[in-house]
Request: fold
Amino acid sequence: MCTEIHKLVYVIFDKIRESVLLRICVLAVGLAAVAAPDSFGQEEAAPLTLEDYKKFTSYKMEKPEEETYAKIEGTYILDREAKPYVFNYSDGIERKIYFYKMLKGAAREEVGTMAIYATPKSGKMIKVCIPGAKADKKVWDYYIDELKLNGEQEKGFLSTLAFVLSREYSREHANAGKGTSTVAKEDGDYDFCFPAGALVALADGSARPIEQVKAGDKVVAFDAASQSRRGTTVTAVQAHYKEAGIGITKLVLLPTEEVYASAGAWAPAAPIEIEATGNHPLYTKEGRKEMRQIAEGDILYHFDSSRHGFREYKVVAKIEQDGQLVKRVYNLETEAGSYLVNGTVVLDK
Reply:
């Protein structure tokens, strides 16, 4: 039975691979992402090599429910595209399938998609890399062998991925000619971060709008161990454009001592605001959280120049600004993995 499912999946995949549309992610017992031209002139996806495949699958994913973005050896990136598929069979075992874009190199070229099959209760996890269309035949052969082996060893693996394939294949045809991805994304693309005008703290004590920051600039980072500031270097700057516009979330922060103080006991400080897309990570008292995961009452860290140190700020309001779209957004990569936007600690994506 397992062999028959495997053959069926492979046949369906062959049909899909022959009809890849612009910016449509194809699934082979999961999601096979095929990169398409982007707004900066990239003409075609980079090929996935067998070495790349093994590097991606060697990454230890601790909590896929929380990990939407991961860097591997500074060269490879996993970027989760959508909510997981969830399956509840009559055997009582919950099964989930997560999909991650596989990006490679400084240009972050998309080379395929990683599918992670997980059974949360047992902690079991199976990772397969679905190559992009430009991958070498030996990579496809390796991938098919992985499907066969895992399908024989894990009940439910092939059937859940075959279901996903069927669903995404149907979506592909429903969207034919529309140029839209078949993936049901959570809140738009995962490449977006801060809008223009967000102020980045520089190491010399000044601040600069994020769109003016360049690789090599010295900026302020956060040392979580000592909760103090430190200098770091910007290693890369990404700018992303979307003609249809990008939704932004705003957080409004106040010092925790003011939130809890009695009336008349203090002179109120001006609230701090920070805006970003829902996927960008910030540093909270509980650790790393994406903007969309942060709730009222969460504690963030803001640098207070008058005190020459960081203060705890409480989120007093969270405002989804889907009606106020921006077309271009920016992200920094730093040696330290953090920097300050409007004085508040944020993390590299």
